[in-house]
Write a structure and sequence with these properties.
Shape of chain B: globular
Helix content of chain B: 25-40%
Oligomer: heterodimer
Structural class of chain B: alpha/beta
Number of domains of chain A: 2
Number of helices of chain A: 12
Radius of gyration of chain B: 22 Å
CATH superfamily of the largest domain in chain A: Metal-dependent hydrolases
Order of helices and strands of chain A: HEEEEEHEEHEEHHHEHEHEHEHHHEEE
Radius of gyration of chain A: 21 Å
Strand content of chain A: 15-25%
Order of helices and strands of chain B: HEEEEEEHEEEEHHEHEHEHEHHHEEEH
Strand content of chain B: 15-25%
Structural class of chain A: alpha/beta
CATH topology of the largest domain in chain A: TIM Barrel
CATH topology of one domain in chain B: TIM Barrel
Largest sheet of chain B: 8 strands, mixed
Chain lengths: ~400, ~425
């Protein structure tokens, strides 16, 4: 609520200072709304922070007092389905790396909002590359590394930036966990530890509902977070790359019945039927992920295979331990497109698909009346190497002018 | 008698192979980008054995009658890509026992069967500078490799005898890359001081050899590290200098000028800040495109515009993959990002080919499509700088080394189950 008031005051102030900025029109030679077919010569009208109207130029007349922007191609603001920017900083020194706490392999109680640096250069860099909404927070590397959150990228405090303060608990299966902790040292042990904690959480949840308040256990943050996963208040985002780890993730989901997103999934192409049957969406690894360790068997064609199989999926920038410190979702989608994914599927997996997977499609991910006015303006094919982003609009404000 | 029969049988089997190797091949219908001149629509490329015989328009080039013809209508042909900085081949270099390893050769560690070579071929790379390191002031001797089918490293070198000829350069680094606990330097000034001390020793060694004038009695005690540094001082071995920050770039140039050795600046993240100084020193720059900055403090100021700024300043500029920092399969993409940030198309394509060849003294062998040069080229499905373009074929010295239409090769382009055996490991070490 507080955030809404701040935003309202902010918009009001802008509105008062420059009356024209509140009302913006965007005209595109090709408009991808993600609500049906692309529109040739499309128009988006923006009233303050919301979309007022979307349609073809023949349907929508741009009022003369609207500040008008023109572009070759316009898409919704990109939604990075999984990142660590803001917790992971550009320098890669201990003092700017907050995405992984190694004191305990299971810490679902760690909140992303308590660590997110809204002014982090990498956040502004991905904004510059079209990411208006980022799902970020605790990274891979622990059985349960902590919570994730959803932020709009232009703002300078976490409060102003928030779209969702707690979205998922980030779980990781596979060999990377063993590198960060003495135990689990094996995949099987990791699963055993997670199952025990979920069983503890089930019991905790039951006891917390006891009628006699004296019989209720003391409030425990770790148990609360896992209980929220069991309750469906938080989604389990499980990073699993190898096929055996993917199957372990699906087995856990089946045993405990939580809402789940399969993350990474480098060997998903081996398990398309199983993933589809489980009904879990996939946040696919960056297409250009390095082929070593658990992602050794990654393929440029996995995204197109997911699309073919009809499995909902979205692109992510992921986590990088070295150079470069983040990836760019637009570029990852571009490579998938050159290896079999069609353009509209790629753009969908950068916008509406992640918004739906993350449960924020009422606000972002497509261009529709009443939704947040988040748009990216391109001077050509968004996926082509040599195309520039000419402008980015977030909540009706032009936050980037030129590439 | 049986020996003679065996020998003749062997010859009978070998003859067709030998003639295939010497066969004349003609590629017609493609747009040819020779780099040495303007693109040729509907061009003709003729190769014989391992060399290019002719490149030109249909009108200019005589097509030999006995040639094997390849119709590549609608495709684009350009020279095999030259990567001036890569870590493919699973090689190593200097260890942690010292900061300076002029004696250490990467050729003594490379696996010619490494699938990383196949990965590079899938990206159209045919010539590569493979460097040891990093993390030292001097990580060791680099190797200039041709991506031939090979069982031993000797078959991949540009020289016939690596014991007698210079088969690569020398990898050096400054800035934070080589700073550490002893025996590594703790500061930048100490780094430069250690390099200077070593080169002064090398100058002394070189003087003694010259004064001995062939007299074995007067020769200094042989030191394999010093031998390599003498080659550096003589200008026969080029120093490939890893450097990022603007002041580290200038320090590398200062050291090169003091001792008169030839350098190529590598990575050069902040080249855009000192492009004029680099141009004035007439030092080439081998740069990298990173999708985003950071990952280490020295790479926080890297810009896509680096190539454009250097081109404008008149610097010889090439792109490199630093594989596996960027993916060799997508090497063309680096040039495209240069164009995105203002580089000319011509300079970007040169930066993937001939400019890199110059950085290894190989410009007479590779980097352009010209008669007499090695028959190294790629067949592309379209514009080399488009994301939608595929490397369809990669030819090395007249032999097709990669063919996207063959599933056995295609997997090295797409990746997949058990294609790469984890050898794209980040050589710089995870943090």
């Amino acid at each position: 609520m507080k955030k809404r008031i701040t935003l309202f005051v902010f918009v009001l102030l802008i509105g008062l200072s420059t009356a024209t900025q509140a009302q913006v029109a965007v005209q595109a030679d090709t408009l991808y709304t993600m609500e049906g077919d692309k529109i040739v010569n499309g128009v988006v009208l923006i009233d303050n922070d919301k979309i007022e109207a979307v349609g073809s130029a023949s349907e929508i007349k741009i009022p003369t007092d609207y500040e008008t922007h023109q572009a070759s191609v316009v898409t919704p603001g990109l939604v990075d389905a999984h990142s660590v920017v803001g917790l992971a900083g550009i320098y890669n020194r201990d003092d700017d790396q907050d995405q992984l706490e190694t004191s305990d392999p299971i810490q679902p109680e760690l909140r992303a909002i308590d660590a997110y640096n809204a002014r982090e250069q990498l956040v502004k860099f991905v904004l510059d590359k079209g990411v208006t909404t980022t799902h970020t927070g605790h990274g891979p590397g622990a059985l349960a590394s902590g919570q994730t959150m959803i932020a709009k990228t232009p703002y300078n405090t976490v409060e102003d930036a928030l779209v969702d303060s707690a979205t998922t608990v980030a779980f990781t299966l596979g060999s990377t966990v063993g590198r960060n902790f003495d135990s689990p040292g094996t995949s099987a042990k990791g699963i055993a530890m997670l199952r025990q904690k979920f069983i503890d959480a089930q019991e905790y949840l039951e006891k917390r509902q006891a009628e006699d308040p004296d019989k209720r256990p003391n409030k425990n943050l770790k148990m609360e977070a896992l209980a929220d996963v069991l309750n469906g208040k938080l989604t389990a985002m499980i990073t699993a790359q190898r096929s055996n780890d993917i199957m372990s993730a699906l087995r856990l989901q089946e045993e405990f019945g939580f809402d789940m997103i399969l993350d990474g999934a480098a060997e998903a192409y081996l398990l398309l039927d199983e993933i589809k049957k489980a009904g879990v969406p996939v946040i696919i690894h960056p297409t250009m992920v390095r082929t070593y360790g658990d992602t050794q068997n990654a393929s440029f064609t996995t995204a197109s295979k997911l699309a073919e199989a009809g499995i909902p999926f979205a692109f992510q920038s992921g986590f990088e331990s070295y150079v470069p410190k983040t990836r760019i979702v637009l570029y990852e989608a571009a490579i998938a497109t050159s290896y079999g994914l069609n353009r509209e599927q790629a753009l969908y997996a950068l916008t509406k698909a992640p918004a739906e997977i993350l449960g924020i499609s009422d606000r972002v991910g497509s261009l529709k009346e009443g939704k947040d006015a988040d748009l990216v303006l391109f001077d050509g094919d968004p996926l082509e190497y040599t195309t520039h982003i000419s402008s980015v609009i977030v909540d009706g404000n032009v936050v980037k002018e030129k590439d | 008698m049986t020996r003679i029969i065996r020998l003749s049988l062997l010859l009978i089997f070998l003859l067709p192979i030998m003639s295939v190797a010497q066969q004349t091949k003609v590629f017609t219908g493609a747009k040819i980008i020779p780099i040495s001149g303007e693109p040729i629509d509907n061009g003709v490329l003729v190769t014989k054995g391992d060399k290019i015989v002719a490149v030109g328009t249909e009108a200019e080039v005589d097509i030999p009658s006995n040639a094997k013809t390849f119709d590549v209508t609608g495709k684009v042909i350009m020279p095999g890509l030259v990567d001036s900085h890569s870590h493919i081949g699973n090689g190593d270099g200097g260890d942690r026992s010292a900061a300076l390893h002029p004696d250490t050769r990467i050729i003594d560690s490379i696996d010619p069967h490494s699938e990383t070579f196949k990965k590079a071929l899938a990206g159209g790379v045919t010539t590569v500078n493979v460097l040891p390191g990093s993390g030292h002031l001097m990580s060791g001797q680099t190797a200039y490799l041709k991506l031939r089918n090979a069982d031993k490293i000797e078959e991949m070198l540009f020289v016939d005898d690596s014991q007698k000829e210079v088969a690569g350069g020398l990898k050096m680094a400054n800035g934070t890359n080589s700073i550490g606990d002893p025996p590594f330097p703790g500061t930048r000034a100490k780094s430069a001081s250690m390099v200077r001390e070593l080169f002064i020793k090398a100058q002394d060694y070189k003087d003694k050899i010259e004064q001995a004038d062939g007299d074995p009695e007067k020769m200094p005690t042989r030191d394999v590290g010093m031998d390599a540094l003498v080659e550096v001082l003589n200008g026969e071995r080029i120093v490939h200098y890893h450097t990022h920050r603007h002041y580290d770039i200038l320090t590398a140039i200062r050291l090169a000028e003091e001792f008169g050795f030839r350098i190529v600046l590598h990575h050069v993240s902040e080249a855009w800040k000192v492009a004029d100084e680099i141009a004035e020193a007439e030092v080439p720059a081998s740069i990298i495109v990173l999708d985003a900055p950071g990952g280490k403090p020295e790479a926080t100021d890297i810009k896509y515009k680096n190539g454009a700024v250097l081109e404008k300043a008149g610097v010889t500029v090439g792109y490199h993959t630093d594989a596996s920092i960027t993916d060799t399969r997508l090497f063309l993409r680096s040039g495209a990002f240069g164009v995105r940030a203002g580089m000319s198309r011509e300079a970007a394509l040169e930066a993937l080919t001939i400019e890199n060849a110059k950085m290894m003294d190989l410009q007479d062998r590779v980097g352009t499509l010209e008669a007499g040069k090695d028959a190294d080229f790629v067949v592309l499905s379209g514009d080399p700088l488009s994301v939608y373009t595929k490397v369809e074929q990669t030819w090395v010295e007249g032999i097709k080394r990669f063919d996207y239409s063959n599933p056995k090769d295609r997997k090295y382009s797409t990746g997949g189950y058990n294609v790469f055996r984890g050898s794209a490991h980040n050589h710089h070490g995870d943090k």
